[in-house]
């Protein structure tokens, strides 16, 4: 089993991947997950980097022409304008990109697909990672969390996460998560 994020230190419950963001306005959401493998015979090493790292990353997809989108899919314009848009139906886009409105709640369409502006898009810089709760105060926004040059399975590493909503708008990516925490390129070795 690979090294992943868990909700418990015993590593019995996988964390929902990716974590979905839901805010009722500006503020911070702190929570804790645990990184590791429950199997003590597994060792994790970086593939090309000097360190094993967890990195906040954008999952927001660019709009595509002639594509069937499902209700709830979230996209951004081909040339980002800082906003995210949710598909309101199950339909196919046309050849031309919508005229993306910048006002939250505004609607636009392409082909038979209608999109609504959900507000400012979530950014990797909205996420801070630390090995301690106190460390979140000084953790770099969107920065990688270094975990060492080698990790042995059977022991969970507490990971403290802070997600900040800098916008006063109600924002959610519940239907199609826009941010995730990625593991850099690694190799898992298993001993018998």
The side-by-side strand order for the widest beta sheet comes to 6-8-9-12-11
Order of helices and strands: EEEEEEEEEEEEEEEEEEE
Residue-averaged pLDDT: 90
What overall geometry do the principal axes of the alpha carbons give? elongated
Number of distinct beta strands? 19
| Major sheet description | 5 strands, mixed
Please identify the structural class as seen in this structure: mainly beta
Helix tally equals 0
Give the percentage of residues in beta strands. Answer: 35-45%
Low-confidence stretches: none
Helix content: under 10%
**Rg for CA atoms:** 19 Å
End-to-end separation: 14 Å
What does this structure look like?
- The mean pLDDT is 90.
- The protein is mostly beta strands.
- It has no helices and 19 strands.
- It has strands spanning 4-6, 22-23, 27-36, 42-46, 52-58, 61-62, 68-69, 74-76, 83-87, 91-92, 107-110, 113-120, 127-130, 145-148, 151-152, 157-165, 171-172, 179-183, 186-190.
- It has a five-stranded mixed β-sheet, with no helix packed on it.
- It is 0% helix and 44% strand.
- The chain is elongated, with a radius of gyration of 19 Å.
- Strand 11 (107-110) and strand 12 form a beta hairpin.
